[in-house]
Design goal:
Shape: elongated
Helix content: 10-25%
Largest sheet: 7 strands, antiparallel
Number of strands: 25
Number of domains: 2
Distance between the termini: 34 Å
Structural class: mainly beta
């Protein structure tokens, strides 16, 4: 072939070569050495990974508890964790109250003046209310009442039934009646415009406060909300990471303006394990929102329900793939005759490892969703209780976690609601125990496998 003929054929040869190597082949078998396998091969599979599942109710806490992750809220400067304690009055379903313990009260004028207090003024219980996570009636008034629920003869006075019996008229300390507009107007100075926190004070008669101070008594305040309509309040908890927002008592021991008023935070002088968790204690006096008895998986509610799914995936499968997408597909069971059936609530799955921090007790696993315990917080999904059909929860990060774990241990997915204790919605899903396999939870994975035989 002459040079001129060669030059004419060269472009055609280049075109043929480029076309051959740019073809998107399922594999590189047709050109194993000349072409890299440019086309990623995506595969889909569905696995039955749930070994057991069950629902657990009663999540309002014994004392102060770790809340479900995702319940953090902005206070204008940062985020609050282990944030809220509920006070709820739902005449048809729930009555939840709080006990705030102030077991140590200053009884002298100031740190530098040890004169005993003989008079005081401006006594008040200071709380912070999260309006975004509270339900305050738009019409009419709501009342928060404070009761003396202490028993001087009981050292470890934490029995809910005994505490509940002390919410009686003869033990009333003070009350505040308010409207929704009044609460929303009571902003906290220095907070950003987007903050949902509001200051909430209940004035205490000075004579009553003085009686507690002078008699060296513990002050344990029972907090109750009442309203003609349903009301659900969430106050910032004692353990929040912002000192200025925790529940406090204030009283001024002197008319001298040079002497500052006392600000007293909660303290529980108890001999129970973790007494700091009893600075606030939740009391459930009524709970008619019991879990379904048909084996369904539920999450949410004023008195919280959470569901545990124990899963196991073959280690050999995880080690041989690259996860692109993964979802736990759960078939929703419609709940059309429940409160808030057509209102959405955000739900989450949290992945946790069955390890020493949590043990193997199922109840413990679903209770302690502490962000410091090993696990992965997965994306949330908005669920409407009245809906039906397949709901796909993103669990891709969980699979990437499990790839590095010992496959001999079962892992856990905890289903919970971000509206726990303040939204009544409690969506339900079919369990692995359902007789119809098509309704059971399944893992759906899109993945790729390593490419072999190509020249890099």
């Amino acid at each position: 072939m002459s040079p001129r003929q060669f030059s004419r054929c060269l472009p055609l040869a280049v075109i043929v070569l480029v076309a051959a190597c740019s073809e998107r082949l399922d594999t590189s078998a047709n050109c194993p050495t000349l072409c890299t396998d440019n086309a990623l091969v995506f595969k889909d599979t569905t696995l039955d990974i749930v070994q057991s599942d069950s629902a657990f109710g009663g999540f309002t806490g014994v004392g102060e508890r770790w809340p479900a992750p995702g319940l953090a809220t902005s206070n204008g400067f940062g985020y609050l964790y282990e944030t809220f304690v509920p006070v709820v009055n739902r005449p048809d379903s729930a009555d939840i109250r709080q006990v705030l313990r102030f077991d140590t009260l200053p009884r002298i004028v100031s740190a530098t003046d040890t004169t005993p207090i003989t008079s005081l003024r401006d006594s008040k219980l200071l709380l912070v209310l999260d309006t975004a996570r509270s339900s305050i009636p738009r019409v009419g008034t709501t009342t928060v009442s404070l009761y003396d629920v202490d028993d001087a003869n009981a050292g470890n006075d934490t029995v809910p039934r005994s505490l509940a019996a002390r919410f009686i008229p003869s033990r009333l300390i003070a009350r505040r009646t308010f409207t929704r507009a009044e609460v929303l107007a009571d902003t906290i100075p220095g907070f950003g415009s987007a903050a949902t926190s509001r200051s909430f004070g209940v004035a205490i008669p000075d004579t009553v406060m003085l009686r507690f101070v002078r008699s060296a008594r513990r002050l344990r305040i029972g907090v109750q909300v009442t309203s003609p309509a349903s009301a659900a309040l969430r106050f910032v908890a004692p353990s929040v990471n912002s000192e200025g927002l925790v529940p406090r008592l204030t009283y001024d021991p002197s008319p001298d303006t040079a002497i500052k008023a006392w600000l007293v935070s909660t303290q529980a002088n108890l001999t129970v394990p973790s007494p700091e968790r009893f600075r606030a204690q939740t009391l459930v006096l009524q709970d008619r929102t019991t879990p379904l008895n048909d084996g369904s998986l539920e999450a949410g509610g004023i008195v919280g329900v959470r569901s545990l799914l124990r899963v196991k995936i073959p280690r050999a499968f995880l080690a041989s793939i690259t996860v692109v997408r993964a979802s736990l597909d759960m078939v929703q069971r419609p709940q059309r005759a429940v409160p808030g059936a057509t209102d959405g609530v955000r739900m989450r799955l949290r992945a946790a490892i069955a390890g020493p921090a949590l043990g193997t007790d199922p109840r413990r696993i679903v209770e302690f969703l502490d962000p410091t315990i090993e696990g992965v917080l997965l994306p949330s999904l908005r669920i409407v209780p009245a809906d039906s059909g397949v709901k796909s929860f993103d669990v891709g990060e969980a699979l990437r976690l499990w790839i590095t774990q010992d496959s001999a241990r079962a892992t856990n997915l905890v289903l919970y609601s971000e509206g726990e204790t303040f939204q009544e919605q409690r969506p339900a899903f079919y369990s692995r125990r359902n007789s119809n396999p098509a309704l059971r939870p399944r893992l759906r994975v899109t993945y790729t496998t390593p490419r072999k035989g190509a020249i890099p």
